[in-house]
Fold:
Amino acid sequence: MSPDGKKATVSLPKVGYVYDVRMKHHFNLNEVDYPHLEDPHPEDPRRIYWIYDILSRSGLLQVMHAVNISPATDRQILRAHSRSHLEFLKSTELMEKTSLVLAQEKYDDVYLSALSYYCARLSAGGLVALCNEVARGGLQSGLAIIRPPGHHACVNRPMGFCLLNNIAIAIRELQTSSSVQRVLVVDWDIHHGNGIQDMFYSDPSVLYISLHRHDHDFFPHGDGGDVNKMGRNKGKGFNINIPWTTEGVGDGDYLYAFRKVVLPVAREFAPEMIIVACGFDAAACDPIGECSVTPECYAAMTAMLKEVCPKLVLSLEGGYNLEAIANSALGCAKALLNVKWKAGLVPMAATVMKYATMPEAEIRGSPAERRTFAQTCPRMPVGQAVGARQRRCG
Structure:
């Protein structure tokens, strides 16, 4: 109650979101001809709607602020991508179905429709608009409910469900048109964000930290996600990979990594904005990630990052179980709004308590000399972790 006897109102932080139903028009043409495929493409157009719907039904959307989307411009795209890549994507708008199917087969895990490029421009433009609004102070933080995803897209080519690198485009726009110059990217998608890493590998103004599976030739393959990939030239030490060497990792692993590496390094870097490559394919029940992260853990990681820098934007990347991504996004939105989740639902309480009381990692030496976490991080035994995942997913 307030001093005058009236019911006190709770002041929520000003949190924004971007969403546009038109992004569903990026779809797999093969599934139009064969709608009952036993193995449909995991990057389902319904992914963004499931997130939007749960936020609406929960009442959170009503206290968040919608940001208008404009498609990314050529100028914005060319700050991150080559002219040849842009012209290729433009050319798909005029292709017939047969040509689109042939074009997509040239790339690694990409599908194309006549509206795919427009949807990719909406996706990138939505993130740009949200980041700009947070940068200028109109919003404190935000959630970009966008697709197609972006963190695999390279300078010269699409890759891994991604056509344009949304986060790279947004960062270059921030650095060009706002006071924000120093950006931390935390990528908790279960796949290494090779596109983001490559674009900023020599750039000390962007610190990229990725937590990802890096086992058994897990996508995107190769050695780009190795712990020893630390950046180049002036960017040396500003690229940190935390590779998991098995499936089944869960909340304890992520919380430990955050407390021992992500948070100490983030505080030292002192970012002016944090952008999360917010994939939910490490979530329990995801058919590709095969890990055990819960919505409560995603909420906890969001809250931790917001303490480092309140200018925080989460940008949807992967995640292929519709219910899991919806609940995970709900947890993140609650954290942005300072809405507490039920304490009884927080998993692995003993692990959380153990690591919460540990001293923060000491930061010594040059940035390039201190990245040995992945070789020493203890984790839950694989059998126990996989068993926990199976119990959650039935």
Observations:
- Residues 43 and 310 are 30 Å apart (CA to CA).
- Residues 1-8, 343-391 have pLDDT under 50 and may be disordered.
